[in-house]
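Posting for a labmate who doesn't have an account.
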Amino acid sequence: MRHHESLEGWFPDDSDGTGNPNDPANRGRGADVAVRQHRLTKYRPRKAKKIASWTSIGLGTIMIMPVFDQSSRQPGYETMSMTSQVIMALCYMAMFVLPGAYWLWRNRKDSQIVREWASTSGEYWDVWESLDPMTKAAFATPTDELPLLPKRHWWAIIIAMFVLAFIGGSLLPPQV
């Protein structure tokens, strides 16, 4: 498979590679190819990213627990309505869950794109190589183009987290 180093991490038997568009080795190869390689390399699923995503979802789940446990109330919370407590807990829960859930969702979509591209590209190359020269002339030569993964919009997630923190914080009871 071509561009093997850019696909490292997406398939279990891959070797290491960089794919940085600023790398001198990528100059003159076209910005589009470098961007595709960079995104494939940057967005590859790693164990640390998976652990961090699931940890943020777990912490978010913990944030909703005090709503259900009325016995461990902090001073000042007894003056809050149950609606305010639930909204505050949901804001803090969403603030923690959002980055992990977004990463897991984007990773799933990216993995589908890479798997579909690998399957289609591999099948096309297999068929192409089995054709005789006269038949090959009638068909397009297979390209070496990598899949373009959509850019991740972490800025929107960060803004949403700040908004949720502000809303949740505005519902906190006044400190005595």
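Reply:
Got it, the structure tokens are right above this. Confidence is low (pLDDT under 50) at residues 12-19, 24-29.
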